[in-house]
Structure formats: C-alpha cells, structure tokens
Design brief:
With 215 residues, the protein is mainly beta. The protein is 7% helix and 27% strand. The strands form 3 sheets. It has a 5-stranded mixed β-sheet, with no helix packed on it. A 3-stranded mixed β-sheet has the order 1-4-7, with no helix packed on it. A 3-stranded antiparallel β-sheet has the order 5-9-10, with no helix packed on it. Strand 2 and strand 3 form a beta hairpin. The termini are far apart.
Length: 215
Amino acid sequence: MRIVRAAAGLACLAVLAAGCSGGGRAGTAAAPAAPTSEPSTAAPTTEPPTTPSASTAVPPPKTVPAPVPTKTSPAIGGSRCHTADLDLVLGPVDGAAGHRNGLVELVNASGRRCVIQGFGGLAFLDAGRHALPIGITRDGPAPVPSLLAGRDAAASKPIQWTVLPTGPDANPASCPTPAYVAVIPPDETVALSVRWRFGVVCGDRISGKAYGVAE
C-alpha cells in the first residue's frame, strides 16, 4: 500500500506540473489573453490642403481701362492786369444819325497772363490835360472776366456818344473837341492816355459797356 500511495503522489505531481486542479481533474490550458486594443492603421485625421476647384478659385484682379480725357474749355487763370501791364488803343469808329460807336482796347504789353474784369474809368481831357465835364455811364450786362493770355492779347470796351447838340438850347458850345482820352483799367488807380482823334463829343455823358462784352 505504501508503494501505491507513493506512485499516486508522483502521478499527482506530474498532473500539477501540467496544470491540474486540486480535485485531481486535468484542467484546460488558459488561452493567452487577447490584447485590449490593436494598433490603429487608419490614415491621420489631418487632411492635406486641397486645391480650390475652378468654381471656388479667386478670380484675377480686373484691369480697369484708363479714363478717356474729355475736352474742356481752358479755365480763366492769372492775376489782375495792372496799368503797367497794358497799352491803350482806340479802335475804329462808325455810326450815323448823330451818334458814334467806338472801341477802347486794353492790350497786354507785358506778356504775362492777366485778367481784366469790370467797366473801368474814362475821362476826356483838353489840350492842357484838364478834365472836360463829360462823364460816362455804365451800360449793358455785368462784367465777365477777359483773359489776356499773352502779349498783344486785348480786351475791348464799346463806347457810344453823340456829335449833335441836344437839349432846349442846342448850344454848339456843349460839344467840345477833346484833345486826349484817359482810361483807368478796372480796379486800378493809374490812368493811360492817348490822343483823341474822333471829333466833337456832345452832351455831358457817353455810355460804355464792360470790357469783354460785345458791342
């Protein structure tokens, strides 16, 4: 009997070495535990930048054509004409029925651009350069600027007077013959004078338009 127990004990050790249970039955070998997770083989979540499609591409900047210049009238420029810039010329005289029409011209003698605007002044003088009792009235529309853009450019002032005595007495003594005419350009205080060669001037008034206004 001792020999049997000893053999049985050796058999049990062999079974335990193989993984038996305490009840003497052979147990099944435990399978190796599966890994809790597998290494991911998915592509990275960050996507590379995509090229915009033709419908979403930014259009190239538009080329705006240069504007076509329009023709404009030259603007009035330059400072006021001063007496020292000007020469005085009396234009042709015509008329009938006792009236005369003439022109007073202020001519640019300086060559610089300057502007004349206004009626100016005018007086008739005797041989001693004393003023005769003949005034001038302002007639016609308001003055407009006249640009004298260079040498010999001129602005004209139409004037009109009578050569026949008027009034109840019709005295010929009221019709002196001036020797000179003195003209003050608009906004100036110094006069220009030239000889008067157009005969008698009757009455105490002549009429004159602004410079640059047509007769």
